[in-house]
Backbone:
């Protein structure tokens, strides 16, 4: 049985301008010990799908479908039932470290809360563990830092604190939403190592939301590419990097600036802008920006799955 | 533009009411370079290395503690306010966060036209509109969107508005402070390509600041790598990525993840140990010595000067001649 299985997940928001379909019939599953990369541009529904699963949507949001965590549907649980899982078995590292840390509390208070509450740790032990974790994410002088308030730290440091907090309870499923977005390259490498270590040590499953295709290539086993709220391609990282089937995935891979290839030619960009979720195009949602679009694309393409479990939502099977 | 031994130091008070101590942060310390017309200089470094302070000092938005910024031979910091204002006609800046840099209550017309009104208060409305529509077209925006507000645009389009505002006065120099860091990759590529095209078309001098070497590769003629306020290396683009002269440059190159699963997993780590030291208390001698894998005794004692190598590139490392840091080789 998969650790987490998502079936037909829909996430929508009621807004004064109408309903926004943030996530549309999303299906995926993740086994223990697997790192899944969730990739796509901003607004593609990566974050909102996991927020929906964890019951963390904004007030005007609604979610439907199924999210089976070890066989139990998270979407059917009330807040107190969810809290049995959230923070202990399932941990999340949020994207924005400034708004996710409580500015009124010193780091030690915020960090030990979870392990004391859920794991029944004594305060001294919890603090020792938190300090060890801060050291593990390469924060210098953690004994001093843990007694500071969030505003006293730099953005990179705060992000590292968020990562340390996520790892503290040794979760079975870790959801990391752009954990390295604000960090320097050399620190990114360190955080990446940290997550691989967690997986090796505890056999945790990790969902890594990122638009850093280099980082995803380095640590993920499988990946799911999203566009305008839909999964457009899903497979192993090798399938997706070496044999991308969907033109959006191909465009995404081509637009990454690469240091390992000599070229003066400039970057290949995907033309146009991501679609407005209030008025999505009919048929294939990537049609307006797709260099390969043809008549059939006015119908919505189904997800095709080939025999190696490489799935893609495009009428064109083979890459050109 | 010529920059000579530029330094910006901030004073910081620490401690209570009694016995407070003054600290000096050397945000930029002894940076020198020349920038030719039509040239693009990439400036790269991790957060806290002083690249944004450098950008502000180049535009005389902060006063240097030492050194000079010469614009066509004139020292910007010796000019009086009115003369400086006139010089600013030629120099513009594009900021990192496109949404935060645009006033949400102004239309695109007013945002882009503001520099025009500032410098030419008597300019006729028709002329303004013509010019605004012209630059909008130039940066790939539809001129009929002139009456819209920033929230009606995507992040990439907002950055185009920011670029249009920078270009409306026909500047000679544009400083881009992390112009694509906040954008998605596919949009990043659009903006980098746009800046590159505009630079060629208008013969602009560009200073392109980024925290990551991969972005500047496609746009720069030369690249300067900064660490703790100092220039570590200033090299021609083609050389720097193949054969960096400074160990820090080589570490930064190795730290950029490759979007290829096999290569990414096989990649050795950057070889950098430890953390960036606090700028309040930088290491003695070479500021990079505490993290350098090629440390010798001399590095702790003597500050290496930024010196010119035989091939014309600049480096601040005592061991530049003996180290072979060619990328692709092991070690």
Residues:
């Amino acid at each position: 049985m998969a650790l987490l299985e998502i079936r037909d997940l829909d996430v929508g928001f009621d807004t004064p301008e109408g309903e926004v379909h943030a996530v549309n019939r999303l299906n995926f599953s993740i086994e223990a010990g697997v790192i899944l990369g969730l990739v796509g541009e901003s607004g593609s529904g990566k974050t909102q799908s996991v927020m929906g699963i964890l019951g963390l949507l904004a007030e005007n949001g609604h979610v439907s479908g199924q999210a089976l965590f070890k066989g139990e549907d998270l979407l059917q649980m009330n807040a107190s039932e969810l809290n049995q899982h959230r923070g202990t078995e399932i941990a999340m590292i949020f994207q924005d470290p400034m708004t996710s840390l409580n500015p009124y509390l010193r780091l030690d208070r915020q960090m030990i809360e979870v392990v004391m509450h859920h794991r029944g740790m004594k305060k001294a032990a919890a603090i020792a563990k938190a300090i060890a974790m801060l050291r593990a994410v390469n924060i210098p002088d953690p004994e001093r830092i843990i007694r500071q308030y969030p505003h006293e730290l730099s953005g990179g440091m705060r992000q590292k604190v968020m990562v340390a907090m996520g790892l503290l309870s040794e979760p079975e499923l870790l959801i990391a939403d752009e954990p390295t977005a604000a960090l320097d390259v050399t620190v990114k490498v360190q955080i990446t190592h940290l997550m691989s270590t967690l997986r090796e040590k505890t056999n945790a499953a990790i969902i890594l939301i990122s638009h850093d295709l280099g980082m995803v290539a380095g640590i993920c086993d499988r990946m799911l590419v999203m566009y305008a709220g839909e999964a457009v391609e899903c497979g192993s990282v090798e399938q997706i990097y070496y044999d991308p089937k969907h033109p959006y995935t191909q465009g995404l891979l081509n637009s990454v600036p690469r240091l390992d290839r000599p070229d003066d030619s400039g970057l290949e960009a995907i033309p146009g802008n991501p679609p407005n979720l209030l008025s999505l195009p009919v048929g294939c949602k990537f049609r307006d920006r797709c260099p390969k679009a043809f008549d059939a694309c006015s119908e919505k393409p189904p997800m095709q799955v080939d025999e190696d479990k490489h799935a893609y939502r495009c009428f064109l099977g083979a890459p050109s | 533009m010529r920059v000579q031994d530029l330094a910006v130091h901030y004073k910081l008070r620490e401690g209570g009411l009694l016995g407070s101590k003054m600290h000096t942060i050397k945000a930029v310390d002894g940076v020198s370079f020349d920038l030719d017309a039509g040239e693009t200089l990439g400036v790269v470094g991790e957060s806290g290395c002083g690249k944004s302070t450098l950008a502000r000092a180049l535009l005389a938005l902060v006063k240097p503690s030492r050194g000079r910024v010469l614009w066509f031979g004139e020292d910007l910091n010796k000019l009086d306010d009115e003369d400086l204002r006139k010089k600013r006609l030629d120099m513009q800046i594009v900021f990192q966060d496109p949404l935060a840099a645009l006033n949400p209550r102004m239309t695109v017309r007013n945002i882009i036209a503001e520099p025009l009104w500032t410098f030419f208060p008597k300019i006729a409305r028709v002329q303004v509109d013509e010019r605004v529509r012209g630059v909008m077209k130039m940066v790939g925006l539809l001129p009929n969107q002139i009456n819209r507000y920033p929230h009606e645009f995507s992040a990439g389009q907002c950055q185009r508005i920011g670029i249009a505002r920078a270009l409306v006065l026909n500047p000679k120099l544009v400083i881009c402070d992390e112009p694509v860091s906040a954008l998605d990759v596919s949009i990043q590529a659009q903006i980098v390509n746009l800046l590159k095209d505009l630079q060629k078309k208008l013969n602009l001098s560009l200073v392109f600041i980024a925290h990551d070497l991969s972005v500047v590769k496609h746009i720069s003629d030369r690249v300067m790598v900064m660490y703790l306020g100092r220039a570590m290396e200033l090299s021609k683009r083609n050389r720097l990525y193949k054969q960096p002269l400074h160990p820090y440059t080589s570490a930064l190159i190795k730290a950029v993840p490759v979007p290829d699963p096999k290569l990414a997993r096989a990649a050795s780590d950057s070889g950098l140990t430890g953390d960036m030291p606090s700028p309040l208390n930088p290491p003695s001698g070479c500021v990079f010595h505490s993290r350098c894998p090629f440390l010798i005794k001399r590095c702790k004692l003597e500050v290496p000067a930024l010196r010119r190598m035989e091939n014309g590139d600049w480096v601040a490392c005592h061991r530049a001649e003996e180290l072979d840091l060619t990328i692709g080789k092991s070690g």
Notes: Chain B has a mean pLDDT of 87. The longest helix of chain B spans residues 185-202. The CA atoms of residues 9 and 26 of chain B lie 4 Å apart.
